[in-house]
């Protein structure tokens, strides 16, 4: 009963305006386009395809939270400066009411080369955003007969028996800095604002608006001299209304097979292990393999928050697939190849 109560409370908070919080992925560094539209086109190749799946809170409910996303982004008009573009899709389903958030975005940016292997980009992202609730699947305390819930008893709730949907136009914008500091170290940092239109999202009225979100993120890629090891620390955080989240940690990537000087990144094979901490929530462990531009990986969230009494430490798992292609152009992964 305690687990059920906590899950109901969490689902209720998800519906309330005072607890709005967007999606978050544990392997955020593998596709930063979800964090910032200004990162479109900054993959090592000219084209990047990405998809992932996340499931969490399996021990709390028979209907755990499920999230799936897909994205494509590419670089074009690449003559020093370049333009990045893409498209992303996101779907999140939670609980017995199949509470869904769907989002389709079109990130666009322009990157200016401000120095050798040093770029500054500004991005804009129009989007379609929707929420759906199948309230006919929900049960309420006054429908309890003593042995089971009965849908023949009216709950006297305003949304009883309704399937509710709301769709809105959305806009995000961001800035992104990508640079090689030297031959062995590259870095990227970004700042983005989401839901700038602050659209109304209440199913039953016109009072509640989606909180704007400020996102900040960064990553270093540090190759160890005379070694096949690279250290890849990264961080990600956002502030959205009353919600504040911060994740930090590092991957340790090992070069299993090197690349020729001419093919660069697209002939490498690497394996990577990572550990991150989502402050006040979970420890995150991941394993990633990159096989000459085709990558796959998985992560696991070990819950360490107060919710642990209901989850028994079980957080969520996430998997991803990614493909990068170069088509003979320059690779941002190797500054010596142009």
Short overview:
This protein has 338 residues and is mainly beta. The chain has two helices and 15 strands.
> What is the mean predicted local confidence, pLDDT?
81
Radius of gyration: 22 Å
SSE run: HEEEEEEEEEEEEEEHE
User: How many helices does DSSP assign?
Assistant: 2
Low-confidence region ranges: 1-19
Structural class: mainly beta
* Portion of residues within helices: under 10%
CATH class descriptor? Mainly Beta
List keywords for this structure.
338 residues, globular, Porin, disordered N terminus, 15-stranded antiparallel sheet, 15 strands, 2 helices, mainly beta
Q: How does this model look, in words?
A:
Strand 12 and strand 13 form a beta hairpin. The chain has a single domain, classed as monomeric porin ompg (Porin). The radius of gyration is 22 Å and the shape is globular. The protein has two helices and 15 strands. It starts with a helix and ends in a 13-residue tail after the last strand. It has a 15-stranded antiparallel sheet that branches. Helix content is 5%, strand content 54%. The N terminus is likely disordered. It is mainly beta.
């Amino acid at each position: 009963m305690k687990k059920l109560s906590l899950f109901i409370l969490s689902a209720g908070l998800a519906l309330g305006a005072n607890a709005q919080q967007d999606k978050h992925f544990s392997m955020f560094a593998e596709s930063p386009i979800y964090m910032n539209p200004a990162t479109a086109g900054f993959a090592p190749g000219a084209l990047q395809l990405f998809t992932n799946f996340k499931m969490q809170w399996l021990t709390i409910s028979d209907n755990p939270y499920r999230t799936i996303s897909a994205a494509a982004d590419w670089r074009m008009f690449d003559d020093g400066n370049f333009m990045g573009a893409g498209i992303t899709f996101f779907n999140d389903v939670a609980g017995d009411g199949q509470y869904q958030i769907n989002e389709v975005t079109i990130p666009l940016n322009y990157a200016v080369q401000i120095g050798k292997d040093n770029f500054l980009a500004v991005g804009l992202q129009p989007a379609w955003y929707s929420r759906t609730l199948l309230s006919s699947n929900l049960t309420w305390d006054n429908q309890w007969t003593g042995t089971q819930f009965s849908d023949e008893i009216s709950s006297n709730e305003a949304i009883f028996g309704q399937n509710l949907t709301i769709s809105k136009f959305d806009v995000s914008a961001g800035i992104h800095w990508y640079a090689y500091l030297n031959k062995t170290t590259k870095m990227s940092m970004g700042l983005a604002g989401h839901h700038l239109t602050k659209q109304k999202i209440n199913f039953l009225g016109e009072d509640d608006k989606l909180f704007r979100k400020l996102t900040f993120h960064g990553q270093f890629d540090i190759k160890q001299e005379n070694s096949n090891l690279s250290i890849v620390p990264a961080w990600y955080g956002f502030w959205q209304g009353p919600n504040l989240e911060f994740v930090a940690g590092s991957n340790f990537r090992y070069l299993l097979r090197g690349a020729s000087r001419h093919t660069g990144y697209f002939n490498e094979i690497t394996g990577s292990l990572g550990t991150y901490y989502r402050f006040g929530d979970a420890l995150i462990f991941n394993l990633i393999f990159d096989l000459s531009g085709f990558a796959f990986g998985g992560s696991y969230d070990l819950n360490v928050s107060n919710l642990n009494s209901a989850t028994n430490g079980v957080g969520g798992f996430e998997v991803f697939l990614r493909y990068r292609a170069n088509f003979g152009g320059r690779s941002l992964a190797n500054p010596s190849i142009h």
